[in-house]
Amino acid sequence: MPRTPTLTFDRGTLILHPPPRGKAWTDFATWDDRVEKFRIPAIQYRHLVESLQAEGTDYLDDAKEFHPVELLASLEMEPYPHQNEALAAWKLAGRQGVVVLPTAAGKTYLAQMAMQSTPRTTLIVVPTLDLMHQWYAHLKAAFPDADIGLLGGGSRDKTPILVATYDSAAIHAETLGNMYALIIFDECHHLPTDFNRVIAEYAIAPYRLGLSATPERTDGKHADLNILIGREVYRKRPEDLAGKALAEHEIVQIKVKLSQFERERYNNLIKIRNDFLRESKISLGSIQGWQQFVMASARSQVGRKAMLAHRGAKEIALGTDGKIRILADLLSEHFPDRILIFTADNATVYKISNEFLIPAITHQTPVKERHEILTKFREGKYKSLVASHVLNEGVDVPAAKIAIILSGTGSVREYTQRLGRVLRKGQDANKRAILYEVIAENTSEEGTSVRRRGFRDNEPQREENKEGNKEGNKEEDKRGNLRVVYGTNQQKTQRAAEQLGLWNDNLAKSDDSDDNPKF
């Protein structure tokens, strides 16, 4: 009498032995000579089980160690319409897929809703220790009777509900793979790296939820999320939620002129760089072009000089004295509102901190000092805070109303996250937030600004400021729903929203519309 096939989990893979009758399972299996058995990628668990069930094949499932859990929520709020829509879309897609919501739109509470509707052992993966502790605090408040643990930062718990960093989850992927039925990937754009992707590939979890404000990656690997988590099932932009889940907001771009000395120096440096690029037939319009420039600059003294000129010109644009004057004006205009100031480098952070006596946070700031600064900022003891990249992700400061970007990269994600720092309503139902983007006119910063706001490179841009327009005048340039201001002290009458209107919000459809988890 033939033995019943048994499915077992083996260090991030599945073993099915003895081979069952039928053919559907063969699409997933590979013969392993080392053990003389068929081996199947763990990520294929759900498809395999559904195929065996569809053929009526009897089998023993010894692979899964996940199980139902009781989640009695003591922290419940009335969901926003977009949260209900996102949850419904995720369910329609078979409880697999990516939800794209702007920062401060309630992704954590959406995850809580997903956990309550799928009460199984759950792994939550986050990119930083700060976020790990924020998630832990939220889940303990939401489910006080649940057994919730941490993996990362010195903790190695084994609990039905586990919050882990991407690094720790990847290291332990082979042992975690069959423990959890639901995996929630916060800031899921971190997943498709060579190191992190094993978290999804070694897991048999039939239910997967990815959360991000900006899932797109410059290397194109965001396409792998379709396989690792599931396709995108729901998306909303900041302007879609302004005045509802998010604060009303406007975006004001302030252009400042370089001084005559700065302009002459900038133009000379750009000429040195461009002469070299032209002779080397290199275009900086792509990542490949930049890589060619870096390699070429290392081969000769002329190339080295061109790279130093490029960096020198960039430093002038980023650190022009005109930006500091604008900053002083904005700090005075918006006092005593809570203000976040962002720069691209630590040197500018410390310069602003020293000149304006403003607390600073960089990657060098000790954890306890950082916690104390953020606490005093939330409480209102500090009115302003300056930082480089460390506040882009995983920091909750709902008290902030004003964000000032003095310099930054061309990353859409960084821009979206910085905007998100001031979009959270907190206790102020009538909050109105403003994001100022201060850039040096007629420099490479204008192109950087275009890229981070999601414009295409071939979109027409404003021509050079006409002769006679001086710093501090009242000219405005309205492009889309972004307001460009030349100088300061402008009346802010037009609401502007983030320039990422490239997506539709159609709910995903799926044959699997069952409201109850099947696994």
TrEMBL record:
CDD domains: DEXHc_RE, SF2_C_XPB. Coiled coil: none annotated. It comes from Brunnivagina elsteri CCALA 953. The keyword Cytoplasm does not apply. Residues 323-476 form the Helicase C-terminal domain. This is DNA 3'-5' helicase. It catalyses: ATP + H2O = ADP + phosphate + H(+); Couples ATP hydrolysis with the unwinding of duplex DNA by translocating in the 3'-5' direction. Residues 446-495, 500-519 are annotated as: Disordered. Residues 455-480, 508-519 have a biased composition (Basic and acidic residues). It is an enzyme of class 5 (isomerase). Belongs to the helicase family. RAD25/XPB subfamily. GO terms for molecular function: ATP binding; DNA binding; helicase activity; hydrolase activity. Its EC number is 5.6.2.4. Pfam families: Helicase_C (PF00271), ResIII (PF04851), XPB_DRD (PF18458). Residues 88-233 form the Helicase ATP-binding domain.
